[in-house]
Amino acid sequence: MNKKRKAFGSLLLASMLTLSMLSGCGKSNTAEPSSASPSEKASAPATESASTEASTLSGKVVFWSMWSNAEPQAKVIDEAIADFKAANPAVEVEIKYNGRDINKLIKPALESGQQIDIFEQDPSAALANLKDHVLKLDDLLAEQAIGDDGKSVKDSIIPSLIEWVKSLSGPAGLEEGYYAIPQQPYAVLFFYNKELFNKAGITEVPTSWEQFLAACESLKQAGIEPITFDDAYRSLFSGGYLASAMGSDWTDSLVKDKTGEMWKDPIVLQFAKDIQNLHEKGYFSKKIAGNKYPAGQQDLAIGKVAMYLNGSWLPNEVAETAGPNFQWGSFQFPTVPNGNDKGGQQGLTFGAQGLLLNKKSKNVPAAFELVKYLVSKKTQAAMGTQAVAIPATVDTKWPAPLEEAAIAFNNAKVNLPWGFGMENAGDFSSGTVFPVFMELATGKINADQYVAKMVTEAKKFYSGK
Questions:
Q1: Residues 382, 407: Cα–Cα separation, whole Å
Q2: Angle between helices 248-256 and 234-246 (to 10 degrees)
Q3: For the chain, which domains are there?
Q4: Is 41's pLDDT higher than 60?
Q5: Coil, helix or strand for 188?
Q6: Of 66, 90, 63, 79, whose CA–CA distance to 4 is shortest?
Q7: Closest Cα partner for 433 from 417, 461, 463, 454?
Q8: Rounded to an integer, what distance in angstroms lies between the CA atom of residue 99 and that of residue 37?
């Protein structure tokens, strides 16, 4: 996926320990897809049993997907639709694989009254931008899940995910409730090449900044470039550091501070000195100055660099380049010292794509029955094995490249926004915060110059507001 993940509100993850549990795409999460493909009718033999009620369903259901028909997720969806069709032969299913173009196509299509019964989107974006079109699902979620030992649909989904979706309703101006069913979960972590770590003699993943620096030095001494990123994900590294120290509420306040005075906080100078040190020590890839997405992740996949802070969709995006024998590992952003006790590894950026129903759908029963097949344990397990995606259902095996991500989920208690809050200032973030960070990370300015420039630029930007 590329960089444009939306921000997510804070959410306690107490229920996350029920995970055996919780990868995406794009601005949202897999390699940038192709444009919309023609609508296709799905049919194939079934292997999943349907409920008694489902056998009476009829009519037509139109599903707009966020995947392109060349992506592995599409194959899994086709299989789920085939199972649904076999159990519900009187229902016609039309699937349109839009790719991420759905983000610009869905609103005008819904507003024009085009038949769309089910669609996929980032739930936070959908509830904010399409709140007049989404159906409240609370009653439907009580229906029995497909192939999950008598659980309701709600209870079959990882608790933290389904409750996160509910938490989005209030800020969107909707009556509290569930308006999306999460699937294709993701989290932001450092992904690393275990083979290179082993070559450098690193036996444990770093959890503190001191350990992180030691790992970088070991990699450098072994002739391995430690860290890379590209233009699509540079916000994650700067935001990850400051949020690890101070929490994402603080970073949100930092980038929105109209006086510029917050940039004088000692933690900002510490951050700047540590980034300067990473550059001067040669821990950053020499290519970061010119890296355009997906250049950085390709360097990780071919073994030229050891670590990349990215989303859990990464192993799937680079699977063809990395090959089946790539040894994936992951760990959370290390804990930064001298913070305010609101950061550390209690926070994690996570979320999911979502399945939503059009509240003007004329065939809600059949549409929701299809959704049940899409989030069945069988389909979610296939997403793990075929698309290297985290399954959204409880007690479902995670794909091997993402197994270590479960450790981060078990540690986390707070849901952090995309970019750890550093993207929350719109044009100031994109036009000033990240370009000036790149000047620091590439040695064009030093730490003191960075602080002075950010104070000045913040005052200048907000003086016109």
A1: 22
A2: 110
A3: 14-186+351-403 (3.40.190.10)
A4: no
A5: strand
A6: 66
A7: 454
A8: 8
**pLDDT over 90 for what percent of the chain?**
77
CA distance 160 to 157: 9
315 contacts 328 by C-beta, under 8 angstroms? yes
Query: Which pLDDT does position 465 carry in this prediction?
Result: 66
pLDDT of residue 444: 98
**Residue 324 CB neighbour total at 10 angstroms:** 5
Q: Give the three-class secondary structure for 180.
A: coil
Q: pLDDT per residue over 404-421, tens digit each?
A: 987 887 677 788 988 999
Q: Which of 41, 446, 36, 34 is nearest to 269 (CA)?
A: 446
Distance, in Å, from the CA atom of 356 to the CA atom of 134, rounded to the nearest integer, reads 7
CA 405 centroid distance within chain: 13
Q: Which pTM value belongs to this model?
A: 0.78
Give me the half-sphere count of Cα atoms (radius 13 Å) on the Cβ side of residue 45.
1
**Which residues share a beta bridge with 182?**
354
80 strand-pairing partners: none
Give the separation between CA 348 and CA 188, rounded to whole angstroms. 7
Chain centroid to CA 119: how far? 18
